[in-house]
Amino acid sequence: MPRATRETMWTLGLDQDDAAAVRQAAGDEFLVREIESPGAVAAENLTVEPLVIWTTRAAWEALPPLVKCGLESREGVQRVLVLSPVEAVEGWEDLAGRGFLTALKSPLAAARVSEVCYRAAEIRSLYADIVRMTREIFLERELLTRKTDQLVFFNRILSRASESLDPAVILARAREDMGLLFPVRAIQAVFWEAGEGGGVDCSLCLCRSEPAVREAWVEFLLEAATRLSGHPVAAYQPEETVCEGRQESPLGPPEPGTTVLLPLRAGRETFGCLALSATEPVRLGKDQIQTVHAAVNHLALALKNARLYREARTHADYDGLTRIHNRRSFDARLMEELKRHQRHSHELSLLMLDLDHFKGLNDRLGHQAGDHVLRTVGQILARTVRTTDFAARYGGEEFVVILPQTSEDQAWVLAERLRRIIGSHVFGYGGETFQVTASIGIASLIPGALRKVGELVGEADRALYLAKSSGRNMVCASGQPQSPAQL
Question: Strand pairing of 52-56 and 78-83?
Fold first, then answer.
């Protein structure tokens, strides 16, 4: 029974005897199609290529040029030239150059036809092997190119991320590098650490955007922090940075499809996540997804180191309880401001604040209640003073605020505002509510006045002492007390 799939052979322009010899040699192994005229070749379905075309010279030359060109371009089709008994091969253009496998003289012998068919099948098999190997080589080259590109990408993102200890700079460079994989418009982030009451304290790194958009991103990142950390957000601190590329339109709110959320892990700890905003829906292949995750692992290490460095700096410059600047950073900043005052002849003021009867509060409610008050007062100072001002914990229950380019009258207005806010705040601890008042002393320098650090602090301390000795819960400057009732 003939096989379901058989190779095809054509006969073109052969006489009946030669065509019969081809059919005899073909047997059940080949399907022979007799093409009566060269013009009929164009109508043949070439989706299945013939293994061999047996043709006379006259029939081949009579083929339409486009048909002949099409057949010659098919590498898997072998052609055999059938010559008449009196026709010589000499004078015919080089057979190999025209793509002919060989030339046989009529009448054709079945054995010779079988031999040619065997050679043609070998050549097609060899050609198929060459095509397969070529494709494999191209595939291997493509895979090697991808691996090389990945290594270049990893080297770039790792080296650039390691060049800075500023999270904002790391994110800005990561946005540029990630843009090599897909169109990243902006990268924002949220980091967290254990906070009070079983919650987490979050730090947000946000791109500049409209207030409504900014609020949407804050909610999106805080929700992600709650979900990934497994704890509610106890407090958060937003920080605006330049981490967005140049775009004609402003950054919009987070949207499904164009926003990719990637957790940041160091070991088994998840300490944050990145939010990548794309300019179009993100569709990544398997290898691209693996590349992105590997890149994020590199970024996580760099960001973790940056946060540890910042935390170390914070512990060195900030008070651990109140989270505002400490005495050491205050001394350094006041020295800088005094030099700036002398160089530019600007006004300069200093507030020194002390909580009234604080020892009695500790004795009555305990030191933890006192710590709660100090922490809250630190938050009040951070919220109330200007960004150009410098608030610090001086020691114990004393706080100081440096006010650059501020006159005594202007300092008095701020001091009185702080006194009223602290005095009106209702503290709650251990099921008990209470209020605390503050006394504030002011020391000011007019343009051109010269003072040393110790002298200016001494003047503020004497003004504070005068405020406390005059009845507390008041502001005093230049030796002139003023009671709350007078204000």
Answer: parallel
Q: Is the pTM of this model over 0.85?
A: no
For residues 373 and 436, is the Cβ–Cβ distance under 8 A? yes
Q: Which two tokens stand for residue 222?
A: 């805080």
β-sheet bridge partners, residue 480: 477
Which string of b and e fits 229-255 if b means at least 16 CB within 10 Å? beeebeebebeebebbbeeeeebbbbe
Beta strands 432-434 and 269-278, pairing class: unpaired
Cβ distance 9 to 31 under 8 Å? Answer: yes
Provide Rg for the chain, Cα atoms: 44
CB 104 within 8 A of CB 116: yes
Helices 286-317 and 327-344 cross at an angle (nearest 10°) of 80
Rounded CA separation 322/378 (Å): 5
CA dist 347 and 325 (Å) reads: 22
Would you tell me how many other CB atoms lie within 10 Å of the CB of residue 191?
23
| Residue pLDDT, tens place only, 217-234 | 999 999 999 999 999 988
Distance CA 259, CA 254 (A): 6
DSSP-derived secondary structure letter, 106: S
374-422: pLDDT as tens digits: 999 999 999 999 989 999 999 999 999 999 999 999 999 999 999 999 9
